[in-house]
Amino acid sequence: MDLPTAWNLDDKSTYLSVDSSGLRVNYEGPGMPGHTGAIRANNPIPPQCKMFYFEIDIIDEGKDKWIGIGFCEKWVNLNGRMPGWDDGSWGYHGDDGNFYCCSGSGSPYGPLFSTGDTIGCCLNFKNNTVFFTKNGINLGIAFRNLKGTLYPCVGIRSQGGSIEVNFGSRKFKYAGNAE
Hints:
Blueprint (H helix, E strand, L loop, with lengths): L6 E6 L3 E3 L5 E4 L9 E5 L9 E10 L6 E6 L16 E5 L4 E4 L5 E2 L9 E7 L4 E6 L2 E8 L6 E6 L5 E5 L13
Antiparallel strand pairs: 1-4, 2-3, 3-14, 4-13, 5-10, 5-14, 6-7, 6-13, 7-8, 8-9, 10-11, 11-12
């Protein structure tokens, strides 16, 4: 069972660069509408693992704070749209605090996030729910009826934007029970 361990360098938008560790992503695009860069992890989340959690450190929110964290199917286009805006894609966005579920219209969910924050995402295949955390605090269930072959993903459309993922190679900020 291969778990996500890094970003997939061959499965990303041309607007993004990834450092040699495979964990840090920088936005290189113009920051205009239609110029979102997204990237998927190197492996899907195996549902048989029952629960999967990862965290994203916001290294630099960039000019407009347009960063989305979530998960998506393999076939979702990574050029031009944020996580959650397309069918087969879900995401929590830092600029408005909304959760997007396969649609360009979000639902109010949690606080805004920016430089210095750590956002976590937990996919619970035991009860088919998803929750996010901010700086170690559980924000509550964002989504129910989880299904599909899902990959962790992140989208950025903010000049100077930079994030780093933790798939478990170091201690998580969130220490709570993922139930």
